[in-house]
Each structure stands twice: as C-alpha cells, then as structure tokens.
Amino acid sequence: MIRRFVMLMFVLSYGVAVHAEDLKPQMNVKYGPHERNVMDFYPAKSDKPTPVVLYIHGGGWRGGDKKTNPKPFLDRGITVIAINYRYVQNGVAENVVPPVKAPLGDAARALQFIRSKADEWNLDKKKIGATGGSAGACTSLWLAFHDDMADPNSDDPISHESTRLYCAAVNGAQVSLDPKELREWMPNYRYGAHAFGLPNFQALIDNRQDVLPWIHEYSPIELVSKDDPPIALFYRGEVPVVGSSPKDPTHSGVMGVKLAEKLESTGVEVLLVTPGVENPEFKNSTEYLIDRLTR
After folding, report:
1. 4 pLDDT more than 50
2. Which of 84, 87, 157, 257 can pair with 36 through a Cys bridge, CB separation 3.0 to 4.6 Å?
3. Is 0.85 topped by the overall pTM?
4. Helix or strand (DSSP H, E) at 273
C-alpha cells in the first residue's frame, strides 16, 4: 500500500517517465499552421536524453523536401529531426516581408518546437546541431549566428524556448545576401534576389540601399559574434580563390573562406574543408556532427 502511494506521488509530481524503447519515428508532425510546417522525427534509442541533428533541406528556399537518411546518426545515439518549411513563394503569397523571413522564421519556430518536446521525445535540449545544404546550410548558419529569439513574455509557451544551437555543420552554404560584397568576392555571382522579392540580381544591385536593413538581418555573416557556437563548413568544386569567377558561384568555397576569416577574427571555432585542403580532421558534415554531439 505504501509503495503504491509513493509511486502515485512520483507520477503526480514528475509525470510518466519516457521509455526510449517505446519511441517510434513520427512523420509529418505539425509545428506550425502552414501545410509545409511539418517535421519527421527519427528517435535514437537511449536511456538518457539524446543529442539532436536538425536537418534543413536545400532547394533555394523555392523547392526541396525533408527526406533524409538518419541511420548514421541513429547508430551513434543521435536523434534526427528533418523539417519542411514555407518557400519564399509562400511568403510572397502571404505578404511576408521580406519573403525570406518565411523559411528562416519557420526554421526558428521548428527549433523551438523541438525543444518544447524534449521531455516527451527524450531529447537533450542543449545539444542540437543543425545541418543542410545550400539554402538549408544558409538557414542553419542564420540560426547559429542569430541572437536568441526566445520570447519569455509570449502567451505561446513554445515561443519561450531558445533558438540557439550547440553547433552547425553545413554543405555549400551561402553566407551573404549582399550583392556588393558577393560581386567583390566572385564577379560572376548572381544568386539571392528572390529572398527579397526582387526579379533578378541586377535588381538587387540597383535596390541594394533600399534593402540593406534586410541584408544585415538575413545574411549569416552579418550576425557573427564571439558567443556563437562551433561551425564546420564543407564545400566541393574548385579550389576557392577570392576574386575568381568559379563555375558554381552559388556554392563556391570562396564564401566559406570569407566566413571563416570573419569567424576566426571574432574568436569563433571554425573548420573549413574545401578542395585543396589536405587531410582534414573531418571529411564531411556527418563525421563532424557525430564527433561534436557525442563528446
């Protein structure tokens, strides 16, 4: 009788304990109101809260999907959560200004939602690392460098959660939306005008002064500060040469070189792996995240 009473008091005080073996993958979990505000949850089996890899897909903020292979992380006790988010064209349709605020804001909301599920999903709220390629990489870096967007005064408890990351490891990341510095780095650069609802890169150049506040708000390199988490940058293609015109400027390691310079000068830990780098400590973002999240 006494034992039953003690167990009842424990449940009332602390809730029912999570059994990791009972957690199953969940597809298309809603984290927001839009039809693309869904995530796939792949739980790692563990008796203690697990680190998390947040996967943000690429596609220029105009396409792509959250489908991914979680197995390398699950095998190492790391939960994977992959998200969809609104495209910039959804932002245009909803009068989101600038349109890029839609995908980036959704990623921040997804991160807060994940933290709000930490007890239910057996997650370590502190150890969340983001990854992705191209636009997903840019979004990951934006989250990594942005000041905490938690709102403790909100009526929505999910908004109370932090948006800060433990680390990020990304592939082919865009690091700036500033046409002036991008053209200085690579004279043939031409990507990013759609982020601000402009028809082409020349329009972005012509209207740079008008959208400069948005450039400062949504370019990851503009947000770097000394309290930012460790970052790993992976690029393929040509050996990066600042001032050159690479075949694929949108994903060129030139951007990684410039961001790494900024991070190093600010005192943020950074690993840059590009063609020409011999014997890197980590060959890809998966290796880096596994090492960082399981230390």
Report:
1. no
2. 84
3. yes
4. strand 270-273
